[in-house]
């Protein structure tokens, strides 16, 4: 209902009591009773004056065709209106009111609908918020998973690079190994050849030795002026090899029993080694005291000592007899025959002396180890006028530890030395 018409209706409602009063004033003479409580019932058309306030306005049935009322406005500003007119008028307003009520209902309904829509909207908003929250949470966890995957990928990349490096290194080593293997294979082939060659040589040598064995002698005499290594056999003694040298100025049939040449063999050795002998028969060596004992006691021997100085001068000392005692006798120099030569009789003072090594002190000094003092092994007395098993010096010195022969008075060291024996022929 429009505001304007609503206002008009209100105005009319106010006008009604006023007109009723006017009518009363016309019909009854100046009756002063208030007529405000009169109500018109449209149904049975009676004028029932009661309290208007209690009237059920909206429950009125509406007649569809309202009649227009006529208003007569007099000079005294009284309005003359018939009861029917009034009823018509009321009908009109009631209709209007009913219409309005319907309209209001509709509006209210509309509002209800809107509110319910608003509520639905709110629910949707809420739902959306929840969904959004869930989505965000999922996004966060998804981001975490992504980060983890990233880290994993990084780690895998690092690992794969490490593996690649290792693989490269392995390949590198593999190539080196293959090269080495090839070299080794070649070396092994060479060695096999060499072994075959040496086996052949050994067989030859063995054959030679067997021949030698058959031709074993008790001295180098049978080998005359030749030079070579030969087998010596003596009674009750294991056969042994010796260098035979008949090519020197001393003549034929000599057996080399000691040789110093270059210092390649250490001569500072103990009793046991001097007993057995040591070194190389083709180079520096000592034959061994036991063999010396056996040889010189089996038959009479002479001794030839060959000396060479650093200035190239050669000297010799020849002894007509040479006998070495048993180990029980301390390998004593039991017999030393007459001296001949151009060196000196430097072995003379050692006659009847026992052999001494640093670990077997047989010398004449009580508080001195001559073997230690002269760094050698000899038939020391007080201590020595000769020291052919001393320390080898590569140049001439005056060292008491050196190889010396007393002819030159100081300890002048010698360049090379050889001791040889030969059975006495006369
Ligand atoms: C008029 O209406 C009143 C109230 O509805 C009712 O009590 C009364 O009987 C009615 N009169 C006639 C004549 O219908
Ligand atoms: C009418 O209204 C007056 C004042 O409002 C009240 O005192 C009276 O009881 C009412 N009459 C009826 C019949 O309701
Ligand atoms: C009419 O009045 C009755 C009681 O007299 C009530 O139950 C009903 O709701 C009313 N209708 C309207 C439209 O006001
Ligand atoms: C719709 O809801 C909002 C807040 O939830 C409220 O402020 C607004 O007044 C509501 N509208 C209606 C038409 O109910
Ligand atoms: C999801 O997270 C990423 C980074 O963590 C961000 O950039 C993006 O805006 C987020 N998306 C939503 C819909 O929250
Ligand atoms: C990478 O290597 C390390 C050690 O070798 C190992 O502990 C780790 O699990 C590896 N990472 C992956 C992703 O394989
Ligand atoms: C090493 O060399 C031998 C002989 O040539 C060959 O049989 C073997 O396969 C080689 N090994 C490798 C790992 O190359
Ligand atoms: C070598 O030295 C010895 C002893 O000192 C000496 O008698 C000899 O004459 C020297 N020989 C030469 C060739 O110098």
TrEMBL record:
This is Fibrinogen-like protein 1. The gene is LOC117572776. Keywords: Coiled coil, Disulfide bond, Signal. Residues 211-425 form the Fibrinogen C-terminal domain. The keyword Coiled coil applies. Residues 104-134 form a coiled coil. InterPro entries: Fibrinogen-like_C, Fibrinogen_a/b/g_C_1, Fibrinogen_a/b/g_C_dom, Fibrinogen_C-term_domain, Fibrinogen_CS. One of its GO terms (cellular component) is extracellular space. PROSITE patterns: FIBRINOGEN_C_1, FIBRINOGEN_C_2. The keyword Signal applies. It comes from Drosophila albomicans (Fruit fly). Residues 1-25 form the signal peptide. CDD domains: FReD (cd00087).
């Amino acid at each position: 209902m429009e505001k304007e018409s609503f206002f008009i209706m209100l105005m009319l409602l106010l006008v009604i009591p006023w007109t009723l009063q006017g009518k009363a004033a016309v019909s009854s003479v100046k009756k002063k009773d208030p007529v405000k409580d009169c109500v018109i019932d449209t149904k049975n058309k009676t004028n029932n004056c009661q309290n208007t306030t209690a009237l059920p306005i909206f429950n009125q049935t509406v007649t569809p065709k309202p009649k227009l009322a006529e208003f007569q406005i007099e000079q005294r500003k009284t309005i003359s209106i018939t009861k029917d007119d009034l009823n018509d008028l009321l009908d009109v307003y009631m209709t209007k009111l009913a219409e309005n009520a319907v309209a209001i209902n509709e509006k209210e309904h509309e509002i209800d609908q809107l509110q319910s829509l608003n509520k639905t909207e709110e629910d949707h908003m809420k739902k959306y918020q929840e969904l959004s929250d869930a989505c965000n949470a999922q996004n966060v966890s998804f981001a975490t998973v992504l980060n983890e995957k990233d880290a994993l990928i990084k780690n895998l990349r690092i690992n794969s690079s490490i593996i690649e490096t290792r693989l490269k290194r392995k390949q590198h080593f593999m190539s080196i190994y293959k090269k080495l293997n090839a070299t080794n294979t070649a070396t092994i082939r060479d060695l096999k050849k060499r072994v075959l060659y040496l086996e052949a040589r050994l067989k030859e040598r063995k054959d030679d030795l067997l021949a030698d064995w058959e031709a074993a002698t008790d001295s180098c005499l049978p080998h005359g002026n030749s030079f070579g290594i030969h087998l010596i056999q003596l009674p009750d003694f294991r056969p042994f090899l010796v260098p035979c040298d008949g090519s020197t100025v001393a003549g034929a049939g000599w057996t080399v029993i000691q040789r110093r040449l270059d210092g390649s063999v250490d001569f500072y050795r103990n009793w046991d080694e001097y007993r057995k002998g040591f070194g190389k028969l083709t180079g520096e060596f000592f034959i061994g005291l036991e063999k010396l004992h056996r040889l010189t006691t089996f038959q009479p021997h002479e001794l030839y000592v060959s000396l060479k100085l650093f200035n190239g001068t050669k000297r010799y000392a020849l002894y007509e007899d040479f006998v070495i005692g048993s180990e029980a006798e301390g390998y004593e120099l039991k017999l030393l025959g007459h001296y001949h030569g151009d060196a000196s009789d430097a072995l003379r003072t050692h006659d009847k002396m026992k052999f001494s090594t640093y670990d077997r002190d047989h010398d004449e000094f009580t508080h001195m180890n001559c073997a230690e003092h002269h760094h050698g092994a000899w038939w020391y007395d007080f201590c020595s006028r000769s020291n052919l098993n001393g320390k080898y010096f590569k140049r001439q010195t005056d060292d008491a530890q050196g190889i010396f022969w007393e002819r030159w008075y100081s300890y002048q060291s010698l360049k090379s030395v050889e001791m040889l024996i030969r059975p006495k022929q006369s």
